[in-house]
Write a structure and sequence with these properties.
By secondary structure, the protein is of the alpha/beta class. It is 39% helix and 15% strand. Bound molecules: 1,3-dihydroxyacetonephosphate (13P).
Protein backbone atom coordinates (compact mmCIF):
# COMPACT_ATOMS: atom_id res chain seq x y z
CA UNK A 1 0.00 0.00 0.00
CA UNK A 2 1.47 3.36 -0.99
CA UNK A 3 1.42 5.81 1.89
CA UNK A 4 -0.77 8.88 1.43
CA UNK A 5 0.42 12.07 3.06
CA UNK A 6 -2.27 14.74 2.89
CA UNK A 7 -1.98 18.37 3.88
CA UNK A 8 -5.13 20.15 5.03
CA UNK A 9 -4.56 23.88 4.84
CA UNK A 10 -7.92 24.60 6.50
CA UNK A 11 -8.77 28.33 6.27
CA UNK A 12 -5.20 29.38 5.55
CA UNK A 13 -3.60 30.54 2.34
CA UNK A 14 -3.68 33.36 -0.17
CA UNK A 15 -2.35 33.52 -3.72
CA UNK A 16 0.98 34.59 -2.24
CA UNK A 17 1.27 31.16 -0.61
CA UNK A 18 0.88 29.10 -3.79
CA UNK A 19 4.66 28.88 -4.19
CA UNK A 20 4.58 26.40 -1.26
CA UNK A 21 2.63 24.02 -3.51
CA UNK A 22 5.15 24.43 -6.30
CA UNK A 23 8.00 23.67 -3.86
CA UNK A 24 6.27 20.54 -2.54
CA UNK A 25 5.44 19.33 -6.04
CA UNK A 26 8.99 19.90 -7.27
CA UNK A 27 10.45 18.05 -4.33
CA UNK A 28 7.91 15.23 -4.57
CA UNK A 29 8.70 14.62 -8.21
CA UNK A 30 12.41 14.36 -7.39
CA UNK A 31 12.51 12.48 -4.12
CA UNK A 32 9.23 10.87 -3.12
CA UNK A 33 8.01 8.58 -5.93
CA UNK A 34 6.76 6.05 -3.35
CA UNK A 35 4.36 8.46 -1.62
CA UNK A 36 0.96 9.76 -2.75
CA UNK A 37 0.86 13.45 -1.87
CA UNK A 38 -2.29 15.51 -1.55
CA UNK A 39 -2.68 19.16 -0.63
CA UNK A 40 -6.12 20.50 0.22
CA UNK A 41 -5.94 24.29 0.02
CA UNK A 42 -8.96 26.54 0.60
CA UNK A 43 -11.44 26.38 -2.28
CA UNK A 44 -10.42 29.88 -3.41
CA UNK A 45 -6.97 28.54 -4.34
CA UNK A 46 -7.94 25.14 -5.68
CA UNK A 47 -7.87 25.84 -9.42
CA UNK A 48 -4.61 27.77 -9.21
CA UNK A 49 -3.11 25.08 -6.98
CA UNK A 50 -4.11 22.39 -9.48
CA UNK A 51 -2.44 24.31 -12.31
CA UNK A 52 0.74 24.70 -10.30
CA UNK A 53 0.75 21.09 -9.12
CA UNK A 54 0.39 20.02 -12.76
CA UNK A 55 -0.23 16.38 -11.79
CA UNK A 56 3.06 16.17 -9.86
CA UNK A 57 0.98 15.96 -6.67
CA UNK A 58 -2.79 15.82 -6.14
CA UNK A 59 -4.88 18.67 -4.83
CA UNK A 60 -8.23 18.35 -3.14
CA UNK A 61 -11.14 20.11 -1.52
CA UNK A 62 -11.80 20.33 2.21
CA UNK A 63 -15.55 19.73 1.99
CA UNK A 64 -18.29 19.33 -0.62
CA UNK A 65 -22.04 19.47 -0.89
CA UNK A 66 -23.97 16.21 -1.30
CA UNK A 67 -25.70 17.82 -4.30
CA UNK A 68 -24.21 18.12 -7.79
CA UNK A 69 -25.67 21.60 -8.36
CA UNK A 70 -28.62 23.74 -7.32
CA UNK A 71 -29.75 26.60 -5.14
CA UNK A 72 -27.24 26.10 -2.31
CA UNK A 73 -25.60 29.46 -1.76
CA UNK A 74 -22.03 29.20 -0.59
CA UNK A 75 -21.72 25.44 -1.17
CA UNK A 76 -19.40 23.73 -3.63
CA UNK A 77 -20.21 20.41 -5.27
CA UNK A 78 -17.84 17.51 -5.72
CA UNK A 79 -18.26 17.97 -9.47
CA UNK A 80 -17.10 21.59 -9.15
CA UNK A 81 -14.05 20.52 -7.17
CA UNK A 82 -13.26 17.96 -9.85
CA UNK A 83 -13.73 20.61 -12.52
CA UNK A 84 -11.28 22.88 -10.68
CA UNK A 85 -8.66 20.11 -10.81
CA UNK A 86 -9.25 18.28 -7.53
CA UNK A 87 -8.56 14.57 -7.24
CA UNK A 88 -9.88 14.24 -3.70
CA UNK A 89 -12.06 15.80 -1.04
CA UNK A 90 -11.98 15.63 2.75
CA UNK A 91 -15.44 14.95 4.20
CA UNK A 92 -16.56 14.84 7.82
CA UNK A 93 -13.55 16.67 9.23
CA UNK A 94 -14.18 17.18 12.96
CA UNK A 95 -14.17 20.95 12.44
CA UNK A 96 -17.12 20.51 10.05
CA UNK A 97 -18.83 18.04 12.38
CA UNK A 98 -18.34 20.36 15.39
CA UNK A 99 -18.75 23.85 13.96
CA UNK A 100 -21.27 23.09 11.22
CA UNK A 101 -23.24 20.36 12.94
CA UNK A 102 -22.42 17.73 10.34
CA UNK A 103 -23.88 14.34 11.17
CA UNK A 104 -22.71 10.91 10.07
CA UNK A 105 -25.66 10.83 7.66
CA UNK A 106 -24.54 14.08 6.01
CA UNK A 107 -20.93 12.90 5.83
CA UNK A 108 -22.22 9.68 4.24
CA UNK A 109 -24.03 11.68 1.55
CA UNK A 110 -20.94 13.81 0.92
CA UNK A 111 -18.85 10.66 0.51
CA UNK A 112 -21.39 9.44 -2.05
CA UNK A 113 -21.03 12.78 -3.85
CA UNK A 114 -17.26 12.35 -3.93
CA UNK A 115 -17.68 8.91 -5.47
CA UNK A 116 -20.20 10.23 -8.00
CA UNK A 117 -17.67 12.86 -9.10
CA UNK A 118 -14.77 10.43 -9.22
CA UNK A 119 -12.91 11.97 -6.28
CA UNK A 120 -11.03 10.16 -3.55
CA UNK A 121 -13.10 10.65 -0.37
CA UNK A 122 -11.03 11.18 2.76
CA UNK A 123 -13.63 10.47 5.44
CA UNK A 124 -12.65 11.68 8.90
CA UNK A 125 -13.55 10.16 12.23
CA UNK A 126 -12.34 10.87 15.74
CA UNK A 127 -13.31 11.06 19.39
CA UNK A 128 -13.43 14.01 21.78
CA UNK A 129 -11.24 14.34 24.87
CA UNK A 130 -14.14 13.24 27.10
CA UNK A 131 -14.88 10.20 24.95
CA UNK A 132 -11.19 9.32 24.99
CA UNK A 133 -10.99 9.71 28.77
CA UNK A 134 -14.04 7.51 29.28
CA UNK A 135 -12.61 4.69 27.18
CA UNK A 136 -15.24 5.06 24.44
CA UNK A 137 -12.91 6.01 21.58
CA UNK A 138 -12.93 2.65 19.78
CA UNK A 139 -16.68 2.28 19.77
CA UNK A 140 -17.29 5.94 18.86
CA UNK A 141 -14.94 5.81 15.86
CA UNK A 142 -16.13 2.36 14.80
CA UNK A 143 -19.72 3.61 14.80
CA UNK A 144 -18.70 6.71 12.82
CA UNK A 145 -17.09 4.45 10.21
CA UNK A 146 -20.18 2.29 9.77
CA UNK A 147 -22.50 5.33 9.60
CA UNK A 148 -20.31 7.57 7.42
CA UNK A 149 -18.84 5.17 4.86
CA UNK A 150 -21.28 4.22 2.08
CA UNK A 151 -21.48 0.53 1.23
CA UNK A 152 -19.79 -0.30 -2.02
CA UNK A 153 -17.00 2.25 -1.63
CA UNK A 154 -13.89 0.96 -3.34
CA UNK A 155 -10.46 1.12 -1.74
CA UNK A 156 -9.08 3.32 -4.52
CA UNK A 157 -11.81 5.88 -3.87
CA UNK A 158 -11.60 5.99 -0.10
CA UNK A 159 -9.22 6.86 2.71
CA UNK A 160 -10.07 7.21 6.38
CA UNK A 161 -8.61 10.01 8.46
CA UNK A 162 -8.45 9.09 12.14
CA UNK A 163 -8.13 12.40 13.96
CA UNK A 164 -8.67 12.47 17.71
CA UNK A 165 -10.24 15.89 18.25
CA UNK A 166 -8.09 16.61 21.30
CA UNK A 167 -4.91 16.00 19.28
CA UNK A 168 -5.73 18.51 16.54
CA UNK A 169 -3.58 21.62 16.76
CA UNK A 170 -2.84 20.90 20.42
CA UNK A 171 0.55 19.21 20.35
CA UNK A 172 -1.08 16.36 22.30
CA UNK A 173 -0.97 12.86 20.85
CA UNK A 174 -2.39 9.44 21.60
CA UNK A 175 0.26 6.88 22.56
CA UNK A 176 1.65 4.66 19.80
CA UNK A 177 -0.25 1.80 21.38
CA UNK A 178 -3.50 3.75 21.22
CA UNK A 179 -2.94 4.60 17.56
CA UNK A 180 -2.17 0.96 16.72
CA UNK A 181 -5.25 -0.22 18.60
CA UNK A 182 -7.50 2.36 16.93
CA UNK A 183 -6.21 1.73 13.41
CA UNK A 184 -6.60 -2.05 13.85
CA UNK A 185 -10.16 -1.46 15.09
CA UNK A 186 -10.98 0.80 12.15
CA UNK A 187 -9.55 -1.84 9.80
CA UNK A 188 -11.79 -4.51 11.34
CA UNK A 189 -14.87 -2.31 11.06
CA UNK A 190 -14.00 -1.44 7.44
CA UNK A 191 -13.66 -5.11 6.51
CA UNK A 192 -16.94 -5.97 8.23
CA UNK A 193 -18.59 -3.09 6.40
CA UNK A 194 -16.99 -3.26 2.94
CA UNK A 195 -15.77 -6.84 2.74
CA UNK A 196 -12.37 -7.57 1.18
CA UNK A 197 -12.25 -4.05 -0.26
CA UNK A 198 -11.89 -2.78 3.30
CA UNK A 199 -8.49 -4.43 3.58
CA UNK A 200 -6.95 -2.00 1.12
CA UNK A 201 -8.36 1.29 2.34
CA UNK A 202 -5.65 3.59 3.66
CA UNK A 203 -6.15 4.72 7.24
CA UNK A 204 -4.40 8.03 7.89
CA UNK A 205 -3.49 9.35 11.29
CA UNK A 206 -4.06 13.07 11.89
CA UNK A 207 -3.53 15.35 14.86
CA UNK A 208 -0.32 17.25 15.66
CA UNK A 209 1.76 15.36 13.08
CA UNK A 210 5.14 17.10 12.84
CA UNK A 211 8.55 16.27 11.38
CA UNK A 212 9.64 15.26 14.89
CA UNK A 213 6.99 12.54 15.32
CA UNK A 214 6.08 11.56 11.76
CA UNK A 215 8.61 8.78 11.35
CA UNK A 216 7.41 6.94 14.44
CA UNK A 217 3.73 7.37 13.54
CA UNK A 218 4.10 6.36 9.90
CA UNK A 219 5.96 3.17 10.87
CA UNK A 220 3.07 1.90 13.00
CA UNK A 221 1.00 -1.06 11.76
CA UNK A 222 -2.10 -0.04 9.77
CA UNK A 223 -1.03 3.59 9.55
CA UNK A 224 -1.31 4.19 5.82
CA UNK A 225 -0.32 7.82 5.90
CA UNK A 226 -0.97 11.10 7.64
CA UNK A 227 -3.42 13.97 7.54
CA UNK A 228 -1.42 17.05 8.42
CA UNK A 229 -2.79 20.46 9.36
CA UNK A 230 -0.47 23.18 10.59
CA UNK A 231 2.72 21.45 9.49
CA UNK A 232 1.50 21.29 5.87
CA UNK A 233 1.45 25.07 5.40
CA UNK A 234 5.18 25.48 4.86
CA UNK A 235 6.81 23.31 2.22
CA UNK A 236 9.99 22.77 4.24
CA UNK A 237 8.09 21.36 7.20
CA UNK A 238 5.79 19.28 5.01
CA UNK A 239 8.76 17.99 3.04
CA UNK A 240 10.39 16.85 6.28
CA UNK A 241 7.23 14.83 7.02
CA UNK A 242 7.18 13.35 3.51
CA UNK A 243 10.75 12.20 4.03
CA UNK A 244 9.51 10.09 6.98
CA UNK A 245 7.13 7.99 4.87
CA UNK A 246 8.16 4.35 4.74
CA UNK A 247 8.90 2.72 1.42
CA UNK A 248 5.99 0.74 -0.01
CA UNK A 249 5.38 -2.51 1.85
CA UNK A 250 7.49 -1.48 4.82
CA UNK A 251 4.59 -1.29 7.27
CA UNK A 252 3.55 -4.49 8.95
CA UNK A 253 -0.04 -5.69 8.66
CA UNK A 254 -1.77 -5.75 12.04
CA UNK A 255 -3.92 -8.82 11.39
P1 LIG B 1 -2.89 19.64 12.97
O1 LIG B 1 -1.87 18.83 12.20
O2 LIG B 1 -2.66 21.11 12.88
O3 LIG B 1 -3.01 19.13 14.37
O4 LIG B 1 -4.31 19.40 12.26
C1 LIG B 1 -4.75 18.10 12.00
C2 LIG B 1 -5.93 18.16 11.12
O5 LIG B 1 -7.01 18.52 11.55
C3 LIG B 1 -5.75 17.81 9.71
O6 LIG B 1 -6.96 17.61 9.07
Amino acid sequence: MRPLIAGNWKMHGLNADLHEIDSIAALAARTQPHVDILICPPASLLAAAARIAADRIAVGGQDCSPEASGAHTGDISAEMLKDAGAGAVIVGHSERRQHHGETDALVFSKALAARRAGLLAVICVGETQEQHASGAALSICGDQIVASVPLGMRAFGLAIGYEPLWAIGSGQMPTSQEIVQMHAHIRRRLVEHLGAEGKNVRILYGGSVKPSNARAILALPEVGGALVGGASLKSAEFAAILACAPQEGATIAAE
